[in-house]
Design a protein that fits this description.
By secondary structure, the protein is α+β, with helices and mostly antiparallel strands. The chain is built from seven helices and 17 strands. Strands 6, 9, 10, 13, 14, 15, 16 and 17 form an eight-stranded mixed β-sheet that branches. It has a five-stranded antiparallel β-sheet with strand order 1-2-3-8-7. β13 (125-135) and β14 form a beta hairpin. The protein is globular, with a radius of gyration of 19 Å. The structure holds ligand PZK. Residues 9-11, 14-16, 24, 26, 68, 81-84, 86, 192, 202-203 line the site of ligand PZK.
Length: 287
């Protein structure tokens, strides 16, 4: 475990440490958030599932875009990464109409400047995946912005590049996942630059924390879809009538066990790798 003095960033469920001038260590905890609140109960191995899945995708998308992964640590939850100059936008690709995209569509018929066909229902598959951008809000929620605002932040040429690469990454992963029983409704990428201005994919990509994963077998457009990973937690919290204001409730053992099983199931379905093999040697996902 790195020294606390080297902590350079922390999120709701992960921490970022400096290793040296060129390298960072991204550590995924077992904490879980729901309705934007981190719960007091952890899901054992959740951080390892997310780290392993992100590593799996990084290893398989190198030809589409360079990424920050240097190595996985033997603990299975820590990624050594190249230190990047992060771009100040979040890059979201949506293949289905959910969340803020659905909300915007119901009020305006468009999502971040993409006019969509009329008559789409909630969770409908879009004719083509769309790229939408958001600002990185320090506190609270990321705010959707339009293309012109994003171009002001990163330049029109760079925006075109991140759009093309984001859509290619999404298409690759969504196609892979669909044949394994998981729909990736949408996903968020964060990119950075290295010295000569080369674009590099950073953060944790194509995990259930950075994406909406839906079980393909239960897909029924026309309403909201169950979350592949967090549905037991949400259902339990709803059953309590919790007001969704912190602190959240402790989770009972059966909800913890069921949720852990869903994360492991997502890992195994998507990678085709036994999760115990990953725990024994994290590099298994990189081969
Ligand atoms: C970087 N974040 C998000 C915030 C976290 C993560 N390779 C990189 N180089 C430079 N900066 C970052 C990365 C990555 N990944 C990522 N902030 C900076 C973030 C809080 C906690 F774990």
């Amino acid at each position: 475990m790195p020294d606390a003095a080297l902590l350079v960033g922390s999120g709701k469920v992960r921490e970022l440490y400096a290793l040296d001038d060129e390298r960072l260590l991204l550590v995924a905890s077992d904490r879980i958030s729901t309705f934007d609140v981190v719960l007091p109960t952890e899901i054992p191995d959740k951080g390892r599932v997310l780290t392993g899945l992100a590593g799996f995708w990084f290893a398989r998308t190198r030809d589409l875009c360079a990424n920050h992964l240097l190595a996985l640590r033997p603990d299975g939850r820590s990624t050594e990464c190249r230190r990047l100059e992060m771009l100040p936008i979040e890059c979201v690709v949506r293949g289905y109409l959910a969340g803020s995209g659905w909300k915007d569509y119901t009020t305006t018929g468009a999502v971040c400047g993409h006019t969509l066909p009329p008559g789409l229902t909630e969770s409908a598959e879009l004719p083509e995946p769309i790229f939408t951008q958001a600002t990185k809000a320090r506190t609270g929620h990321d705010e959707n912005i339009d293309r012109d605002q994003a171009a002001e932040l990163v330049g029109v040429e760079r925006l075109g590049e991140v759009e093309r690469v984001s859509i290619a990454l999404y298409r690759f992963a969504a196609e892979h996942a669909r044949t394994r029983g998981i729909l990736i409704a949408d996903t968020k990428f964060e990119f950075g630059l290295v010295e000569q201005g080369q674009l590099v994919l950073g953060d944790e990509a194509l995990t259930p924390d950075s994406s909406r994963f839906w079980p393909a077998g239960e897909y029924r457009p026309g309403g909201s879809q169950p979350s592949f990973d967090k549905q037991f937690v949400r259902d339990y919290c709803e059953s309590l009538g919790w007001d969704k204001i912190a602190p959240g409730p402790e989770l009972p053992d059966d909800v913890v066990a069921g949720t852990r099983a869903r994360y492991v199931e997502a890992f195994e379905q998507l990678t085709g790798i036994d999760f115990d093999d990953y725990l024994a040697n994290p590099d298994t996902v990189l081969r």
